[in-house]
Inverse folding.
């Protein structure tokens, strides 16, 4: 990146989400390079998710808390609930959704768009602080004893939240809402672009995009000097750090817009510090 050329920013999120971030980058005079690293797929066995949606309809009091940690989980569960509604008789009442917690502002927005206004939206997310807030909001005598939690999430997600909830006495039902399938060929292609200096910034919006990139790149790949790595939030940044990537940019607002703003701001600061203010 030099002179008056636009900085080239790799957009690695799934194809159905890539356009939003690309438009935001273009609006900030950055050049998006779209290389989706993962595909969002339905679970191989959708039975547990279907049963949870049906249970929510037939017995709304069965769960005390509906927990989401990604917009993809919200959309997958919403689709299953709507499918269950379509199977029900026309006069069937709308399901009464229990208290909703959404991790991160993007997840909270997806929940609101689905018609489920979250009561708890920690952003930034720190597991211990979130669990303490749940105890304050929903617990009794300093614990979550007996709190029934439905947690639709990605396949092979981290166990930090389920374990933390259970350690405080909650009864947690984890159901697979979707799975991410890595595109290893795309990971190899993006690594080649980075090595050749054809992208200036790598953006990651989930731990699965980090894993897909590094698996595709292979163990011998090394980040070239000057390559900027940006993560949408601390969980994604932690996943990158664990895999040996140095993360330079993490926005305060963990949304696509926040990520675009943070990347643009960092690059603008770099240009000023290098004297390239054109």
């Amino acid at each position: 990146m030099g002179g008056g050329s636009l900085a080239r920013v790799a957009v690695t999120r799934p194809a159905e989400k890539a356009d939003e971030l690309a438009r935001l980058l273009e609006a900030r005079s950055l050049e998006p390079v779209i290389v989706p690293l993962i595909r969002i797929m339905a679970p191989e066995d959708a039975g547990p998710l279907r049963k949870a949606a049906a249970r929510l309809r037939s017995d709304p009091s069965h769960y005390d808390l509906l927990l989401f940690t990604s917009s993809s989980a919200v959309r997958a569960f919403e689709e299953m609930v709507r499918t269950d509604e379509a199977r029900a008789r026309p006069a069937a009442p709308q399901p009464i959704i229990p208290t909703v917690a959404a991790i991160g502002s993007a997840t909270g927005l997806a929940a609101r768009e689905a018609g489920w206004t979250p009561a708890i939206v920690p952003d930034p997310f720190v597991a211990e602080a979130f669990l303490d807030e749940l105890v304050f909001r929903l617990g009794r005598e300093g614990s979550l004893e007996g709190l029934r939690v439905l947690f639709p999430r990605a396949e092979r997600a981290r166990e930090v939240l389920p374990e933390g909830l259970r350690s405080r006495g909650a009864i947690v039902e984890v159901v697979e809402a979707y799975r991410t399938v890595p595109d290893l060929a795309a990971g190899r292609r993006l690594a080649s672009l980075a090595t050749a200096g054809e992208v200036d910034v790598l953006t990651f919006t989930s731990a699965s995009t980090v894993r897909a990139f590094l698996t595709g790149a292979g163990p011998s790949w090394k980040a070239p000097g000057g390559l900027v790595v940006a993560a949408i939030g601390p969980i994604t940044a932690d996943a990158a750090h664990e895999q040996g990537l140095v993360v330079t940019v993490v926005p305060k607002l963990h949304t696509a817009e926040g990520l675009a703003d943070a990347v643009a701001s960092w690059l603008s600061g770099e240009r000023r510090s290098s004297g390239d203010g054109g």
Summary: The mean pLDDT is 88. Residues 13 and 36 are 5 Å apart (CA to CA).
